[in-house]
Amino acid sequence: MLFSPGWRAHVRQGEVLAVFSLGLLLGGTLSATVLWLLSGFAEPLPRTVRIAAIMAIAVAGVAREAGWIRVPLPQNARQIPREVLQRRIRLGSLQFGFELGTGVRTYVSASAPYVVALGLVLAHQGPLATILTGTGFGMGRAVTATARYASRNDEWDDRRITRMPILTNAIGIVVLAALAVLLLR
């Protein structure tokens, strides 16, 4: 949690949220840039092989979200040290957001980001589409933090947890459909 219930810092929470969100966007953008660079390795593969691999990965992601198969996702079990946010709140929030925005500093429980990342590498789209996708990942994480902050309601987390399986399954299906449209055009 970025904010504790007894917030007493000299910096306003909204300011910290804005810096944190900027970090999320920058982290997602960097990760997507790396994915775009890596996608050059997939370019020599025949288009049909890349399409088949993307579809197989997407179907596996949807099946994992539905609970039909168990596939462990990569995770970084280390936590960001408490000192990062305590010593220098603005810089620490930017660093925390950046590390979360990259998607490699924390455990991402949903399959969709992994499906999209692998799909971007295999599809070898242009840099703009790939980078905007990564920025969208950071933005999605920022929207969650902003919605939580704006709600000021302790029941928000309970409602989010109840709705999350529905959302992740729906997102998985949308990702699968989007990949199919992108690749079959």
Automatic annotation (TrEMBL):
The keyword Membrane applies. The chain crosses the membrane at residues 16-39, 166-184. Keywords: Membrane, Transmembrane, Transmembrane helix. This is Uncharacterized protein. It comes from Actinoallomurus vinaceus. The lineage of its organism: Bacteria, Bacillati, Actinomycetota, Actinomycetes, Streptosporangiales.
